[in-house]
Amino acid sequence: MSRRILFLLAVLVVAAAGIFTVNVPTNANPKKPIQRDTLDIDGSAILKKREFEFEDGTTYWMHQVTAEADEEPYSIRIPLREEFAAFRYRELSSGEDKKPYWRHLNLQEVKTLPVAPGFIEAAGKYIWIGEPIVYRELGNGTVEAMPGMEIPIEVVQTSRGITLEIRLPKRAGYVSEIWAMESKEPLIQWREGSMEQIWLSRDLTQNAKWLYNGYHYKSPSTYEPTAENGFWRIPDNYILHSLLFTGGGKAAEHMAYVMLRTSLEQQEPDGHWKTLPMSQWLRDDYQIPAGFYDTRFNTGAAEKMLEGCKRYDEPDFCESARKYADYFHQHAQANHYTVEGQTGWLVADYASTQPHKDTHVSLNHQLAEINYLYSFYQVFGRPEDKDLADIMLAGVVQLGKKWILPNGDLHYAYYPDGTFARPDYPYLTYNDLLETQQLYKEIYGQEEPVIAQLMASKWDWIVRNNIPYVKIK
Length: 473
Description:
This is D-glucuronyl C5-epimerase C-terminal domain-containing protein. This protein is α+β, with helices and mostly antiparallel strands.
């Protein structure tokens, strides 16, 4: 008997008295959303539902069906009760550049929706709906999407208006999901500023998926497991970054909260987020196995928790940010190199609970960590965070011009033997330097001269090589 069947039997014993329901008041503040998680049995399948009810009446929901046997699909109906409704979704051009653009459909003229996230607008009903997806779990936080196995959302014309019929397939060994956000008021004011372009840049189809247990990104070929349509659960969430720091109306504000809540579930008790797949090059170069600690991905996740702490006044987000800061202090103490001159540390990019070789220090990782510590200090005022940031900044500054290549670009990384190697990213490190300089000036009232020198050299290289520059918070 399979473990899944045993689990189903155990669930059924309890479910005889009704479905599992957990109401989670996410804060003592009554203005905070109410989270409801339920677990039920539908035939031989496990049905999980998650719902967030926001103060303004907006509701976010997500359904996941994990099937043990082939059965009739699980159905969801959304009545629009209007004769006219429109669907806006992101499409890619057929040219080589695959440029995204908006397509608009009149739901009176179609029988099914495209398999893509999009926005439905009808009188008194506004919905941001995800694409229906079917996938199989590969293990280590990785899934393989199965394009063509999903059932497109059906648009049914009735005497009372339009109804959306969603059917999630129940196929043995596969998982089906869909999510949506519903409101009686517009979720996005499309005519305001550059709102259309902001949302057009957000990809939850080609390179990323939003699933029940978190944000998944396209799996690199060097990760194990991987697949052509593989997606792995990455600690950092690029869409969440955009929602928090660029915004985009009510939809952005509420979805950012949902994504932060989901990220909390993936954080380890000690404060870090694991990279669950195995990286072939980290294994080959440093003997680091699956389930390792990546400082850049983790610092990105914690940065968003810190922003969520400030924006939503959410104690759980604040505590998450603090737990990561404490974890990083321990990592830095145990995994650093002391550089020449006054005391300065360069902190290793990766770590594992298993024995492994010492890893390199990427300049962009080091700067991101410094920026997080300074930012955390600005919010909570703990002197130990500023002190560690100062020591790490000294590690960068003491090496000074050694970071600069003859062509003006910067070295990517410092190695344990004292050498530098690998080409740097086109502009990522420049953005990190820019933020470091801004934070340093806010705290100390003046610019750091070596950081200014590195910025000037990198910027000159960007300009001379006609690199398309994108400023990112």
